[in-house]
Amino acid sequence: MAPTVAVVGGGISGLAACYYLARGPHPPKVLLLEAGARLGGWLQSTRAADGAVFEHGPRGIRPGGAAGADTLHMVSELGLADAVLPVPGDHPASRNRFLYVAGALHKLPSGLGALLRTVPPFSRALLWSGLRDLLAPAGTEPDESIHAFALRRFGREVADIAVDSVCRGVFAGDCRALSVRSCFPLLFRAERRRRSVLLGLGLALGSGERRGGGGGGGPAHARSRVGAEPPGAGRALEPVVAAGRDGDAARGAGGVPAGARSGAAVPSAPAQPPPPPRWPLGALAEALPAEAAVLAQELRRIPAVSVAVVNLQYEGAALPVTGFGHLVPSLEDGALLGIVYDSVAFPQHNGAAAASLRLTVMLGGAWFEQSFGDPAAAAPELLLHRAQAAVREQLGLEPAPTRSIVRVHQACIPQYTLGHWQRTEHIGRFLAEHRLPLSLIGASYSGVSVNDCIASAKVAVERLLGPQR
Ligand SMILES: Cc1cc2nc3c(=O)[nH]c(=O)nc-3n(C[C@H](O)[C@H](O)[C@H](O)COP(=O)(O)OP(=O)(O)OC[C@H]3O[C@@H](n4cnc5c(N)ncnc54)[C@H](O)[C@@H]3O)c2cc1C
Ligand SMILES: C=Cc1c2[nH]c(c1C)Cc1[nH]c(c(CCC(=O)O)c1C)Cc1[nH]c(c(C)c1CCC(=O)O)Cc1[nH]c(c(C)c1C=C)C2
């Protein structure tokens, strides 16, 4: 008799696990258990009546590397290749990212020329920071905060402005609390192996070394991205769900149980769907038996931050710059993480009013509670007001938006804080020693990107069933 595998959680990790479980030659019976009224987890989109699409969660993935290739392969096997919107590496949305510092937008330097010149907001050429990295001794601590690491290797401006902002634009997190070893393992290893981050990265990328989990591979990773055709990333899951059902049925392997489909399994873009249960790790820790108290304790030590996502649409407005968006370093404004210029990367999502401008303002993260209080009680009007004020001040757009959507995602981005590597090792050891029939997948362990989540599902299924085709 085919074994049964229960997949708990129908976010991208759980859905990818179902896909990998279902595609082998002898698929097990798969039960997908989702507590919410829809599938997709943080992948959420709204399609307005005029066709405009608003992403409330991820909006792009990096197609490069092994994890990117696996994602694209899954997308293609599910018949979704036509739904992919490529953003080439030379597109302004891939090339241009900005920082908002001291009242002005500054393009993040890229290319050798920019490294040789003094480019604001930096007070001297970044070449000096590079030289510092080549000369500084390697660290010896088993882990270090990202800020301390960047300060040691590249100096204060790079740490306080560039690195601080990137951590906000990937983890919505504070680089003073996040672990370099777990968030940027490639940078950590580069320093340990070659004594210099730049040298180590250059040699590793030259030899085609894989980026191992964590956000943002470093300065040299492929810049192209892909997004989803209308109806958007969240609603593009419809065929994923359907393929899971059909595939299972065709193989006579059980399929998703009717209870787990819960009527609204196919997202239907309600105005404000009920929020998913807070912090899946907390739910798991509570569900574990007393014998696994050690495991529950480690899981509770992996925190997550909340982000308010404010989608805005303007008619007849023009941006002062063209690019992916801008980030705001925490020294400038803790509450305001950054603004994505959605219309630049994905004009296909503008809907009928092709000249409309869509922006997403991201607020809170590690600064949520101190800026807005309890995320469960944060007033949407306050968040909208804060977002509009930022667009006015930072992008000079005076008119009121014609459309706005405010979502507060509670505990949506796990934080790999100092010592995260020990927690995940401890968890892995506990599962192995006790031979628990449990695999942990998803954003809480070894990478928060959609690609990382899908890769974690693949690895877990291969461990369980052996390599799948
Ligand atoms: C605002 C935002 C922007 C992002 N942008 C990007 C981006 O541009 N590119 C990128 O690669 N990544 C991005 N990410 C990260 C990425 O979207 C997430 O890390 C990823 O979607 C997490 O997927 P998951 O399946 O692990 O978890 P989740 O999406 O949290 O899914 C978990 C699922 O489990 C369910 N659940 C919870 N508790 C229970 C329970 N007790 N029983 C049953 N089910 C339960 C939940 O309802 C949910 O459906 C972004 C994230 C956010 C929040
Ligand atoms: C302003 C806040 C945020 C923005 N995006 C996210 C937050 C919290 C979430 C997020 N963004 C990315 C990832 C995946 C990481 C990965 O490893 O692929 C997540 C979880 C992608 C990303 N976005 C930015 C960078 C540097 C990266 C890393 C990889 C890549 O180059 O694609 C920068 C960035 N994010 C936001 C803005 C406005 C911005 C830069 C201008 C929004």
UniProtKB/TrEMBL annotation:
Residues 209-235, 251-277 are annotated as: Disordered. It is found in: Mitochondrion inner membrane. Keywords: FAD, Flavoprotein, Heme biosynthesis, Oxidoreductase, Porphyrin biosynthesis. Its EC number is 1.3.3.4. Its cofactor is FAD. It catalyses: protoporphyrinogen IX + 3 O2 = protoporphyrin IX + 3 H2O2. GO terms for cellular component: mitochondrial inner membrane. PANTHER family: PROTOPORPHYRINOGEN OXIDASE. This is Protoporphyrinogen oxidase. It comes from Amazona collaria (yellow-billed parrot). The lineage of its organism: Eukaryota, Metazoa, Chordata, Craniata, Vertebrata.
